Amino acid sequence: MNFNEGEIIYINKPYRLSSFGALAHIRYLISQKLGVKRVKTGHAGTLDPLATGVLILCTGRATKQIESLQRHTKEYIATLQLGATTASYDMEHPVNAVFPTNHITRELIEETLKQFVGIIEQVPPSYSACKINGDRAYDLRRKGKKVELKPKTLQIDEIELTAFDRMSMQMSIRVVCGKGTYIRALARDIGRVLGSGAYLTSLCRTRVGDVRLTQCIDYDRFQEWLDRQNIEQ
């Protein structure tokens, strides 16, 4: 294994850790192992801090593959809370509005989900890394400034309702989609069409391309994995 020449590593990112934070820690461990100040690294496809799952890290010359890796199809398992919304469309912010849910049925949800399969337009979350005149959207929001993002065209291949609890008004979906899809924004839009509002309570990226979560290195055990590798300097 040669991290300077280039390696692609698949990590299971834990909850409440940013993708950059995960990258920085893994880079530090590899650099320490190699005895260098800083090995070249990058990640392909950001995961929100509150999301878990497959995160692709590239080292050395493999960082040139990041753009192509980002184009791979991704699969997610998401849980949505119906009946309320938050500013960030997930649990990072408190509930800011509540809505009636007595009209919600499994049949209505399944019919609604069909509307989101195919090529769709999606407005990214204002709490996101999207740039507006060089500034990150989330930085502008945190400064109290108004953020208006343009819709993006993207592809959703599959949406499957995997669970629905009418008592708690929680639903789980499996989503297979292309580059640039915000599952938080998808939750927002599903809630709007249902007339109930919705926000994410959990999100796990279970696949990127052909790489599944079961093939990933657990973030907390990366040092153990690293110690077992035959590393070329």
Automatic annotation (TrEMBL):
Any one Gene Ontology molecular-function term assigned to this protein's record: tRNA pseudouridine(55) synthase activity
GO biological-process terms attached to the record: mRNA pseudouridine synthesis; tRNA pseudouridine synthesis
Pfam families listed in its UniProt record: TruB_C_2, TruB_N
Enzyme class: isomerase
Positions of the catalytic residues: 48 (nucleophile)
Alphabetic keyword roster: Isomerase, tRNA processing
Catalysed reactions listed for this entry: uridine(55) in tRNA = pseudouridine(55) in tRNA
Domain Pseudouridine synthase II N-terminal: 36-183
Listed EC numbers: 5.4.99.25
Limits of the tRNA pseudouridylate synthase B C-terminal domain: 184-227
Function statement: Responsible for synthesis of pseudouridine from uracil-55 in the psi GC loop of transfer RNAs.
Family from the record: Belongs to the pseudouridine synthase TruB family. Type 1 subfamily.
Record-given protein name: tRNA pseudouridine synthase B
